Amino acid sequence: MTIRHTTHALRRSAPALAGLWLGAMMIASGQAQALTPVEVAGNAERANVPDGATLDKQVALRAPRLISFGPEDEMFIGSQAGRLYRLQPPYDRVDAEIPLSGYPHSAVVHEGYLYVATTDQLYRTRYTPGQDVTEADFESIADLPGGSGHASRSLSVGPDGRLYVALGLQGNCSAQRISEDVAFEDRRGGVMALDPTHETPEWTPYVSGLRNPIGMAWSPEGTLYLNNNGPDHWGYEAPPEVLVRAESGSFHGMPWYQWNEGEWQRDECIDSASPGGRHTLTPPVATFAARSAPIGLTFLPDDNPWQVDMVTAIHGSWATQASGGRATRRPPKIVGIRLEDDGHQGQVVDLVSGFQAENGERWARPAGIAYREGALYFTADDGDTGLYRLTP
């Protein structure tokens, strides 16, 4: 990964950074670059893309979510439709459609196993590329805290070979967190890790203090970055959604604190004492407008044609301003993040827009994101649903 330093790179502790962050965030939030309108191959829509790029719909899918790659470049896509999809290069048709109950949001292949995370279970089956798989082949190897509220469970393989799962809080102000001293069913609002080689795999806490961290991505240096969908009880404009750098054991404030207007602010919706004070909280790497709903997140290699370090799918809000109607919904888009200051700050740039018309009607809402050989792939789980490809 190429970290793009500025002449005023900040190298300070978390408390010192907080005092200087507002100016940096004005740079980092929502900057746009010139995009060119194009017709989307495979449907009758239009979108705005970097000059010279093309966008095409690869294949129709029902409510597809996160994307991952397995051996021999197989692509796996979870869904809200009780299906796990497998596609082979060039990813223009479904090679296998595996029925799975319990919301199979994401899947990974690791050390000869195919793992799938549902709302309340981690499943696996032995797997080789191209293998026929049915629901009966999967065994449950670990429970997950289930329940109502944010039901997606994002799954990732860490550089240490462990499996990592992200879980959202049940609501805006749920007193839940990832910690050994919390009842298992309330270990939500962060990330847990599991060593699948143990005879009885068990989850251990990794990071906490996030309302709904869906997007997960590991830097080449082995650091976890997380998208977070913020609460909606502060109105339509605040607090912003955040991208955080998640170190082992880090606490990111929520629901006790929200990052807003360049500082950590106490959220009075919860009366209990915060497990960590304001001075322990690290500012986010970047922010997105409130109600943007960032989902999929991925790192790109240094030689990528998009000249960014990371890419995320902005799902766009379902909510609107009180009197504005659908036209005020946050628009879906694909954005890139250029990291600076050794990965502690990021500048956000638009890569694909035009999914939402001025009246608020949408033809797609991006969800999952992935990169392969110069091309960006993303899923749309609403509107004209399926897999799309942005080619330079």
TrEMBL record:
<dbReference type="Pfam" id="PF07995">
    <property type="entry name" value="GSDH"/>
</dbReference>
<protein>
    <submittedName>
        <fullName>Sugar dehydrogenase</fullName>
    </submittedName>
</protein>
<feature type="domain" description="Glucose/Sorbosone dehydrogenase">
    <location>
        <begin position="147"/>
        <end position="311"/>
    </location>
</feature>
<dbReference type="InterPro" id="IPR011042">
    <property type="entry name" value="6-blade_b-propeller_TolB-like"/>
</dbReference>
<dbReference type="InterPro" id="IPR012938">
    <property type="entry name" value="Glc/Sorbosone_DH"/>
</dbReference>
<feature type="signal peptide">
    <location>
        <begin position="1"/>
        <end position="34"/>
    </location>
</feature>
<dbReference type="InterPro" id="IPR011041">
    <property type="entry name" value="Quinoprot_gluc/sorb_DH_b-prop"/>
</dbReference>
<keyword id="KW-0732">Signal</keyword>
